Amino acid sequence: MGLAALVRLATPDHAYGIGEQVVRDPEKRLAEMEQRRAEGDLRVDAAITEVGRWLGRGAASPVNLFNPRVIVLGDYCARLSDRIIPVAQTELDRLGLAAAIGRCAFAASDLGFGAASRETVDVVIERVLSDPTTIAIS
User: Fold this and answer.
1) Could you tell me the pLDDT band of residue 60, with boundaries at 50, 70 and 90?
2) What is the pLDDT of residues 7-27, one digit of tens each?
């Protein structure tokens, strides 16, 4: 579940594409969610809980199949991990196979927004620099 879905759940009256001034910057939208949560907005907390629930459900099959030791959360999930991880872990524990879930835990990345895309670019650049023949020149 992406940040747009979280925003729609938490603030259906102010979701992406609704209203006169739409904030599309994910950092600003996340800051808004964090502010509303700090102010005690129950819809935000309920939306974050729902994200955690779906994250745990979604992780169950890959954990059962591949038996990883950790699932690293990035972007907005990392910033909201204090609430998301316990819910996701509970759901994973409920749906996963005992042998697999006993070794697997969720962890929050501290690399910030866009870490996955930056890492992907780094991998591509490293590959091209290490072997320039990987690029086809037309």
Assistant:
1) very high
2) 888 887 766 655 555 566 778
Can you tell me whether residue 135 is helix, strand or coil?
A: coil
φ, ψ of residue 45 to 5 degrees: the values are -65, -40
Q: By the 8 A CB rule, do 47 and 76 touch?
A: no
Q: Domain of residue 30: give its range.
A: 3-112
The CATH number covering residue 70 comes to: 3.30.420.40
Residues sharing a CB contact under 8 Å with residue 92, sequence separation 6 or more, in sequence order: 56, 59, 60, 63, 101, 104, 106
Nearest CA to 101 out of 135, 137, 71, 133 is that of 71
Q: How many domains does the chain have?
A: 1
Say if 129 falls within a structural domain.
no
Q: Is 19 exposed, middle or buried (0-12, 13-18, 19+ CB in 10 A)?
A: exposed
Task: Decide if 95 is inside a domain.
Answer: yes
Per-residue pLDDT at 51: 94
Is residue 22, in this structure, part of any structural domain at all?
Answer: yes
Taking the model in full, what pTM does it have?
0.75
